[in-house]
Write a structure and sequence with these properties.
This protein has 189 residues and is α+β, with helices and mostly antiparallel strands. It has 5 helices and 14 strands. The strands form 4 sheets. Strands 3-4-2-7-8 form a 5-stranded antiparallel β-sheet.
Length: 189
């Protein structure tokens, strides 16, 4: 099998979650920071929309006993970009694109797996997904193209200055992407 890859995904070996994570698989599921978890029998995937949230989650996994990198290669978990594939060198992970209900999506599977069936998060539908339509704003360009409006229910809401439409960034962290602007608006400078 394979797991869906959207935005930046942290892909974790399930056997390492079971053996290392406090509380094993149940503890990991209970601690998952958002609703993007999906898993096959070999891998678990959690997705993030910002580098800061990816980094925070990776640090949490390390504090729980999983090893990210050794000698330049991913050991227990890896990071994978929806558009570019693995961000870190990883010998046990295979990245590619597969068909899900007539739509092309990015996915990862354990090297040697023959099954191309893709596991997605509960309630996932292509039409409402990042695979179906997404926007990318490079780090540092947020202030140029987006104006922060509000943070509500784990989502940063911005005004896209080019289109005049609201755009949404799911967050697991506390501060919006351009926290400096947010602090200025609130007078907390």
């Amino acid at each position: 099998m394979a797991v869906l890859v959207e935005a930046v995904s942290v892909i974790i070996r399930r056997n390492r979650i079971v053996s290392q994570y406090p509380g094993g698989w149940k503890g990991f599921v209970a601690d998952c920071p958002n609703g993007t978890l999906c898993a096959d029998s070999d891998l678990a995937r959690v997705g993030f929309m910002t580098p800061a949230d990816v980094e925070s989650f990776c640090h949490r996994l390390e504090r729980c006993g999983l090893l990210f990198m050794r000698d330049g290669s991913a050991i227990d978990f890896s990071t994978v970009d929806q558009l570019r594939g693995p961000i870190t060198h990883c010998e046990w992970l295979e990245y590619g694109h597969v068909d899900v209900d007539g739509h092309r999506v990015a996915a990862c599977r354990l090297v040697g797996s023959e099954d191309a069936h893709v596991v997605t998060p509960d309630g996932w539908r292509y039409e409402n997904s990042l695979s179906g339509g997404y926007g990318f704003v490079p780090t540092g360009a947020t202030n140029k193209s987006l104006a922060f409006l509000r943070h509500e229910n784990g989502v940063d809401v911005y005004l896209n200055r080019l289109t005049g439409k609201e755009v949404y960034v799911g967050r697991t962290g506390e501060l919006p992407l351009n926290a400096h602007d947010h602090d200025e608006r609130r007078g907390n400078r």
